[in-house]
Amino acid sequence: MTTLINNIQLEPKDYRSGIEPTWCPGCGDFSVLNSLTQTMSAQHIDPFKSVVVSGIGCSSRTPLWMKNYGFHSVHGRALPVATGIALANPDMPITVTIGDGDCFSIGGGHVPHAARRNFNMRLFVMDNQAFSLTKNQASPTSREGLKTSTTPYGNIDAPMNVIELLLSYGATFVAQTFAGNPKHMTEIMNKAMAHKGFAFVNILSPCPTFNKVDTFVYYRTRVQDINETHTDLSNKAKAFELAATVNDHSKDENAKVPIGVFYQVQKETYGEKLKALKARIGAKDTRDMNEIFNQYRP
Ligand code: SF4
Questions:
Q1: What CATH number has the domain bearing residue 63?
Q2: Centre of ligand 1 from the C-alpha of residue 216, in Å
Q3: pLDDT at position 3 over 70
Q4: Which of 22, 174, 175, 291 falls 20 to 30 Å from 111 in CA-CA distance?
Q5: What are phi and psi of 121, to 5 degrees?
Q6: Measuring from atom 3 of ligand 1, which residue has the nearest CA?
Q7: Which of helix, strand or coil describes residue 158?
């Protein structure tokens, strides 16, 4: 490992903890982990001044395989933990790795607030359209008709459109990629990591153990890079138009699955707003804890 003092230049392998992932052979999450370490290396992220936060699920084991500071939190609560870290360390690179069920079901109430506040963090959802750690229950992104242990006769719920949601919530970077296209995924992760503000990436990451429909082969023949023609990334109306098509493939076998950056704008982050507020009211950055406790002592 080279020096970590000023100019960080580490190899992707230097971001690995040395603990081998216990994911099933062929899981899409291996590819996500590889792209993540390549991105950290390319973006010169200091593992000792950055953090990876997760919830619960197969994908949420990611912090264990990484050398960065890590917080493997509880189900649905990765974003509140990441929010606390962002408040205490507004300049720290924060990456949240999380599954679709954890993020949009149990933790669904936290997503709009993290997005609308424009915290400087990355939300990487490893979307396998199922709760896999708990042995295959339907998740909010499961397609209609999918047979799982909770939907043995086929899912009757429509899948969430998570791209539309994040656009509505005010995320300043919204993208989708596919774990079966590592080059595209790494490019998108690099863009998300370089973005100042809240960056959301939905990563289609197949679960070969339980989901026999949304497979690598299935997506490989259907994904289409929207950025070949969609280049005005600040055009929100166009982003919504493209986002409206993300689940069409589950009803129309000829429909494409759009991947790429739907939307990106630069706005003041929560950390910057907080700094400005503190400067305006003359607030101290730190307070003597005794001063606080004394207010409550009899
Ligand atoms: Fe990956 Fe599915 Fe195995 Fe979980 S159950 S590790 S998502 S292949």
A1: 3.40.50.970
A2: 13
A3: no
A4: 22
A5: -150, 160
A6: 24
A7: coil
